[in-house]
Amino acid sequence: MSSLALSLAVRDSSTMLRRNLLHVRRYPSLTLNLLLTPVILLLLFVYIFGDVMSAGIGGGGGPDRSAYIAYLVPGLLLMTIGGTTIGTAVSVSMDMTEGIIARFRTMAIHRPSVLIGHVVGSVLQCVMSVVLVGAVAVAIGFRSTDATVLEWLAAFGLLVLFAMALTWIAVGMGLVSPTPEAASNNAIPLIFLPFISSAFVPVDSMPGWFQPIAEYQPFTPAIETLRGLLLGTEIGHNGWLALAWSLALTVLGYFWSKASFNRDPK
Predict the structure, then answer these.
(1) What predicted TM-score, i.e. pTM, was given to this entire model?
(2) Where is average pLDDT lowest: 47-51, 140-144, 172-176?
(3) What is the CB-side half-sphere exposure of residue 63 using CA atoms within 13 A?
């Protein structure tokens, strides 16, 4: 790609990014609804179930709500990313059904810039949502234990990489969904999978037949890696699994979205 072509691609992608950010400002209700879900779950599990859950995780000892807050927050942060990307699937589907994508196809613009604008905008929304949920968690007692600057940077990098992976999958879902409602339904696994991961209880406390399902899905390795970085728990092979899942989902989502976007409309 020549320098001129690269400059035009960057310009068009920046324009599409601004368009998507303005769209979020004009229609904040969807983002707000998706963001409220992890905040409500955080408050619910801490203040309603916190004593019981913390006693169970502590091996039958006395309840320690602060310990359960520390256990819960990494999973809720990743769940926040999954919920935010549902809005991306809906937004992409709205563009498809309202005809703006067909309009973009006829214009002299860098075609991938349409998808890049959605992806970058969604990742920025994910980061802002994670910061907000993290702030609520700190306000109710979450504290990182002895995490170094390098570990904080690694945790941030993991969150951004995971957000990018789920965003590309959500873009693909939005492109193939016939309506925004269908896109929202198709993206439900992005917010449902954390419920069958180690986000709320340890995997070894689950039934034996179910443990492999919970352990080797995308969210559990990412959650355990984030816990290890922020809380000093054992990461083991989860770091490599989280990285592998993130890269695999990013590549899958990218090629799926590209193929769906370039497909001639019927």
Answers:
(1) 0.87
(2) 47-51
(3) 10
